[in-house]
Design brief:
The protein is α+β, with helices and mostly antiparallel strands. It has 3 domains: 244 residues, Rossmann fold; 69 residues; 270 residues, paralog of FGE (formylglycine-generating enzyme) (Alpha-Beta Complex), CATH 3.90.1580. It is built from 14 helices and 27 strands. The strands form 8 sheets. A 6-stranded mixed sheet has the order 2-1-3-7-8-11, with helices on both faces. Strands 14-15-16-19-27-20 form a 6-stranded antiparallel sheet. About 7% of the residues have low confidence.
């Protein structure tokens, strides 16, 4: 799930400059569009009377805006497939061959000391880590003079070199017009039309075409003037990026795919990965071609290929700058003991096993161990007569090889990856360990599906690998580890082997047993335990039964009719709010709920102190 954040600034009242009429309203309308129609989660709004954030003023003075740029963009907090938009409506000026945005206290007689250079803005925006940064400037409003060149030329040159998509309201020697009949600027009127249902301009290219037609038309009709917007999007594939996925056509997606294949053929795996992630976002996560392409890219990286991107415009052809070598992670082997129990819970067999794994260094002594899960075919679900309706029909699934977390994600790992979100710091809330039962080696819990996905995105950004949640099929295949019994231990389970509720539960007059079938009752610990405390399955995975529920990628379906048979996640089209899958049971649930085949569902924003997750890394 991509992350979409923005800053919107609109200034009507200036201390030393001619006031504007509709700049604030333009920013408000952009904010509303991004939130309601484009699905942006965080929009930071700065205008003459915008509310405080964490007790700090959002009036767009030079000091306030510089503080945001310096604090907010101090370190990357986004990654591939993410979007950050910056919208500014107000005065802009050119001074000493540099382009400036004028804050509310900017002084035309001392521009260098009171205004904000636009190249400073673009440089800070690039630090966010998103591969798609959009700069929208309606900053050429008339100052009562037509002398000299307006802003745009320097900004366009530098933004294109940094890969920032730059959208200008007018050409450098023109001015933006405010349209009284619309109570808006001509540019913002056309921009919102083009991005919205009227224009349905999903891509940068189509939006550019719409603005070039519509803005001059509006200005001719209402002001008899001239205003020519333009967009700078380099390299050329930036023009094909999808700005509004809801309006993307099959042709738009096909063009992105061609760009992604071309980038891979040219050896630029990073760009290819970014483009495939955008294909996946435009297709609501259901494009199998994109999934397989991302898996192939991961395989290429894993095998240690030398990746040589095309030389940048500033790098001589014979330079080695920009060439990176991806080293193959050496696999290690670990030994462990598995146990098998009979129907009464007695251990009948102990077996020494081994598995391969590799270690991801998360920093500060925290590591993540990923176990190699061999590909194979298995029967998913249970046959008629043995299962709940949601666990039927039983069907054959073939799962490609992948890697899975040896343990559920721990609190130490969660904190190492999530870090201190800079937005949380600004509002005075920097608690990045949501767990109720504290302990570095305990699984993180009280995390939603959305939280788990964000963790995977940040982990991918941190490591350069593509981590994600397991598909439901991958999870069940990994848990079974070749078994066909209700538990990977055998016919039953005991609280010596897993952390679950081993005592009876009386709910509204109905007694639910704390044992499974003929197995014994046991403890009810009423909290999580350190990961790895109980015996693993024969793949070398710990705590696949109990401790905390584990989120999967999939949307909930009432049964397996129509389920994929290739191990991929089963997703609905355009349904980001639907319920998501959890597997494995938890410390607070009965043994029947900890069976391999048992399925649970909750909304993507649901949090509880028995819900966690583990991660996978997959490739074809």
């Amino acid at each position: 799930m991509s992350k979409n954040w923005a800053i919107a600034i609109g200034i009507n009242r200036y201390d030393y400059l001619q006031p504007l009429n509709y700049a604030k309203r333009d920013a408000q309308l952009i904010q509303q569009f991004l939130r309601s129609e484009a699905g942006f989660e965080k929009i930071f709004f700065f205008t003459d009377d915008s509310p405080e954030i964490g007790g700090k003023s959002t009036r767009p003075t030079r000091a306030n805006l510089r503080r945001v740029f310096l604090e907010l963009f101090n370190q990357p907090f986004m990654g591939a497939g993410d979007n950050f938009w910056f919208f500014f409506s107000g005065h802009g000026m050119r001074h000493a061959e540099r382009d400036y945005l004028m804050p509310s206290d900017g002084h035309p007689g001392d521009i260098a000391e009171t205004a904000i250079p636009i190249n400073f803005v673009t440089e800070r925006l690039r630090r966010c880590g998103a591969d798609n940064v959009v700069l929208i400037l309606d900053a050429c409003r008339s100052l009562g003079t037509r002398a000299g060149e307006g802003i745009g030329r320097q900004t366009a040159e530098e933004a294109s070199q940094q890969g920032v998509i730059s959208i200008f309201s007018c050409s450098p020697q023109e001015y933006s017009y405010e349209i009284e009949a619309f109570q808006q600027g001509a540019f913002t009127t056309a921009l919102l039309e083009g991005l919205g249902v009227r224009g349905q301009c999903a891509t940068v290219e189509r939006l550019n075409q719409y603005l070039n037609f519509r803005v001059p038309e509006i200005v001719r009709q209402h002001n008899n003037g001239r205003q020519t917007p333009y967009i700078i999007a380099e390299p050329v594939n930036k023009s094909h990026l999808i700005l509004v996925p809801r309006y993307a056509t099959l042709a738009d997606i096909a063009t992105l795919k061609n760009d992604a294949y071309r980038a891979k053929d040219e050896g630029n795996l990073d760009l290819s990965e970014q483009l495939w992630i955008r294909v996946l976002a435009a297709a609501s996560g259901t494009d199998i071609e994109a999934v397989r392409a991302l898996q192939r890219i991961e395989r290429l990286r894993w095998e240690g290929q030398v990746i040589s991107p095309p030389p940048s415009r500033n790098t001589p052809d014979n330079s080695t700058k920009g060439t990176s070598t991806v080293e193959k992670n050496p696999l290690k082997t670990f030994q462990f003991e598995t146990v098998t129990v009979d129907a009464q819970g007695n251990i009948t067999n102990r077996r020494n096993c081994e598995a391969k794994y590799w270690v991801e260094d998360l920093g500060n002594g925290v590591t993540l161990e990923m176990v190699q899960i061999p590909g194979g075919t298995f029967m998913m679900g249970l046959p008629e007569g043995e299962a709940y309706l949601s666990e039927k029909p039983q069907h054959q699934v073939t799962v490609p090889e992948f890697f899975m977390g040896k343990y559920q994600v721990t609190q130490a790992q969660y904190q190492a990856v999530m870090g201190g979100n800079i937005f949380q710091k600004i509002i005075g809330n920097n608690n990045n360990n949501p767990a109720n039962f504290k302990g570095e080696k305990r699984p993180v819990e009280t995390v939603s599906w959305n939280d788990a996905v964000e963790f995977c995105q940040k982990l991918s950004q941190k490591t350069g690998k593509t981590y994600r949640l397991p598909s439901e099929a991958e999870w069940e295949y990994a848990c079974r580890a070749g078994t066909t019994t209700p538990f990977y231990f055998g016919e039953t389970i005991t609280t010596d082997l897993a952390n679950y509720r081993g005592t009876d539960w009386n709910y509204e007059g109905t007694l639910y047993p704390g044992n499974y079938d003929k197995g014994p009752k046991g403890q009810y610990r009423e909290q999580t335990t350190d990961v790895g405390k109980f015996p693993p399955n024969s793949f070398g995975l710990y705590d696949m039964h109990g401790n905390v529920w584990e989120w999967c990628q999939d949307h909930w379906h009432d049964n397996y009719n129509g389920a994929p048979t290739n191990g991929s996640a089963w997703l609905n089209d355009n349904d980001n709010q639907s319920r998501r899958l959890l597997r494995g049971g938890s410390w607070g649930y009965l043994p029947v709920n900890c069976r391999i085949a048992y399925r649970l569902r909750y909304a993507a924003d649901f949090r509880n102190y028995d819900v966690g997750f583990r991660v996978v890394l997959a490739f074809a």
